[in-house]
Design a protein that fits this description.
By secondary structure, the protein is α+β, with helices and mostly antiparallel strands. It contains 25 helices and 17 strands. Strands 3, 8, 9, 10, 11 and 12 form a 6-stranded antiparallel β-sheet that branches. The protein has a 4-stranded antiparallel β-sheet with strand order 4-5-6-7. Strands 13-14-17 form a 3-stranded antiparallel β-sheet.
Length: about 650
């Protein structure tokens, strides 16, 4: 029965069923089963994960003991593990100070630059909306703006050493600041699937999230959508009913063939290179993978050659299956050995029980006394043969190396400087059997273009050749090619590719957006404005596109309309420095120095290193007679100018 056809049935008098209704009854939703809300849109068929605990209480109670059960949640004083009394963290490469504070039940993030007398200049503050990470090893922090966009903040808590530090990807002077976007592709693995409108998570669309999100990876991420299972439980009656029918309505990974069971784990944990994530196949959405299907039908994995490291020396934070597959134990098992050979996905047992489990798995094939006759009978194997070590991409913590090996004669926990991979080659890893040559090129070029910020001209050229030869009917490769051509200055090519993507996906706003940007670069302001306005009629919540409209209107001489567009952009995302910058310049042009000063200060709180904004602010402060503030900002300007030449 399809979700749209689900009807609410009366009855259900068993106590456990009554409890389901009490815990999970929806508030008159169109999609529900026996009063329990059911998701629709791009992620149909899911019920609240709390529903599962009604019948499976033991598992639900144990699940938070593992990291997946605490992967994503609202911050609160009750779950705080951080040291809020520690001194603010100073990041020397960017010369910024960072702090997370507990204010009542809320987490607050602050970033500033120190003035000559310790003043907090360019102070950016934001309430933290979400925490990512169980805290077993680390936590990172997100905030959400009114449009639904979410951004990662630069500071992280590293639990193993009990210290604050820069989050992965923020270690160097030139980092994302407070504007690193959170993408649906990331959230598919860091949390349970959220409910998003149909098409909202399509390739290339603005990365927008509802205010209410699941809190943690739940049961259905591994078992698949639960609405049919819940409905079957009500229909058949849990007590004395047809349990086979109830069980058949949900996926049990334990009953899947070994490769399909591994795919459930691999959908998140197999990541050969953190620099180049897997590519979702054209025609598939990021939330489309369902347990039980082949992972290769959903995504294409890529691997790299790193000029700095031999293949067997690469070790990254998410290399658990990748390194496991390099182990003789996996290679010689004929596919029988896998993640759940050692790991209980429902909960974490006490360490002694886990060690006994690991030993039993090892001694199932290896007679320990033949190799280690002096070891105690209860000794476990993994502490030597699967050592903990620091990964090259997040050296502030350590994780288990799942490549089963003879113990290396090195200190794997010694402090390690981060050295990002130097990618010299990209190739497919476990390519799906049905992958045609053209789609293989698309998968490789997608990864390279994402890695390069869509500026790798050789990858764009290869993608263009595939499009010319095969004329695919999916919009995704056309859209990726259009963005790359636009960034490479090939404006007519970009327009043509974006137009083709729009013809294939007429309800998608981004092809029209790119068409408008191409026309803007070609100097056709009228066409650029018309296309930009058309894209906003398709989707009016794109803050960046309202800014683009403001820039076009300003270039056309319509200052009032430009200011209105910039203000609309800021109403959706008040952490957009480009919009504050446009407001500042429009205010300055009409002689409103006070408004221009406030807008430049707002822009610099978000992007403190922008030299032109700082120069403009210094001049405005001097003109307003604020000589002391002007001197402070001139000192910052000189500091930044020196940094650019050092």
């Amino acid at each position: 029965m399809g979700l749209a056809a689900i009807v609410r049935r009366a009855g259900a008098t068993a106590p456990v069923l009554v409890l389901v209704l009490v815990l999970c009854a929806g508030a008159g939703r169109a999609d529900e089963v026996y009063g329990i809300p059911v998701t629709g849109g791009d992620v149909p068929g899911y019920v609240p994960d709390a529903t599962c605990g009604t019948c499976h209480k033991d598992i639900a109670d144990r699940f938070p003991t593992i990291g997946m059960g605490r992967s994503f949640y609202r911050p609160s004083a009750d779950t705080a593990i951080e040291d809020f009394d520690a001194p603010p963290f100073h990041h020397a490469p960017s010369d910024r100070h960072f702090q997370v504070e507990l204010r009542g039940n809320d987490y607050w993030f602050s970033r500033w630059r120190a003035g000559p007398d310790g003043e907090r200049l360019d102070l950016f503050q934001r309430r933290i909306d979400w925490v990512v990470g169980s805290g077993n090893r680390s936590r990172v922090y997100l905030y959400r703006v009114d449009s639904g966009a979410m951004f990662q903040l630069p500071l992280a808590w590293y639990s193993q050493e009990g210290k604050w530090g820069m989050a992965p990807g923020f270690e160097f002077a030139d980092h994302f600041g407070v504007s690193r976007p959170v993408r649906h592709r990331c959230m598919t693995c860091h949390n349970a699937y959220p409910e998003v409108p149909e098409g909202a998570a399509d390739f290339g669309r603005p990365e927008l999230f509802p205010a209410d999100l699941p809190q943690g990876i739940g049961c259905q991420r591994c078992h698949g959508p639960g609405a049919a299972h819940v409905e079957a439980a009500f229909d058949e009656g849990i007590y004395g009913g047809n349990l086979d029918a109830v069980r058949a309505a949900i996926v049990n990974p334990a009953t899947l063939p070994a490769d399909r069971a591994r795919d459930v784990c691999y959908s998140c944990h197999l990541q050969p290179s953190v620099s180049l994530p897997a590519t979702v196949r054209p025609g598939r959405g990021v939330y489309d993978f369902r347990p039980g299907e082949s992972l290769g039908a959903h995504m294409v994995q890529v691997d790299i050659v790193d000029a700095l490291r031999a293949p067997d020396a690469r070790f990254e934070i998410n290399h658990h299956p990748y390194r496991m597959e390099q182990s003789p134990c996996f290679l010689e098992s004929g596919g029988a050995f896998g993640c759940t050979s050692c790991h209980d996905p429902h909960g974490k047992a006490p360490i002694e029980e886990r060690q006994a489990t690991y030993r039993a798995v090892c001694t199932g094939c290896h007679e320990a006394t033949e190799v280690h006759p002096d070891l105690a009978a209860e000794a476990e194997c993994t502490s030597c043969h699967m050592p903990a070590r620091r990964p090259q991409d997040v050296p502030e913590l350590w994780v288990t190396d799942h490549r089963i090996q003879i113990p290396p004669d090195t200190d794997l926990l010694a402090p390690l400087d981060k050295r990002p991979a130097e990618v010299t080659e990209v190739f497919l890893y476990h390519p799906p059997a049905d992958l045609a040559p053209g789609e293989a090129v698309i998968a490789q070029t997608f990864s390279i273009l994402n890695y390069s910020g869509h500026t790798a001209d050789y990858a764009a050229a290869a993608l263009g050749r595939v499009l010319s030869a095969e004329d695919p009917s999916e919009f995704e490769p056309w859209l990726a090619f259009a963005e790359s051509a636009l960034r490479l200055g090939q404006y007519e090519t970009a327009y043509a590719a974006a137009e083709q993507a729009w013809l294939l996906a007429p309800d998608h706003p981004v092809p029209v957006k790119l068409m408008g940007l191409a026309k803007l670069q070609m100097g056709d302001l009228d066409a650029a404005r018309a296309l930009t306005e058309r894209s906003l009629r398709i989707s009016g919540d794109m803050a960046e596109q309202h800014l683009n409209l403001g820039l076009i209107l300003a270039a056309s001489g319509d200052a009032e309309a430009a200011l209105a567009a910039a203000r609309r952009a800021l109403s959706l995302n008040d952490a957009m420095p480009q919009a504050w910058r446009l407001v500042a310049r429009l205010a300055e042009a009409r002689g409103d120095r006070a408004a221009a000063t406030e807008a430049y200060e707002a822009a610099l709180r978000i992007e403190p290193g922008t030299l032109d904004d700082r120069k403009a602010l210094v001049a405005l402060l001097q003109a307003l007679g604020r000589s002391g503030d002007a001197l402070l900002h001139r000192a910052l300007l000189l500091r930044d100018m020196r940094a650019t030449v050092e």
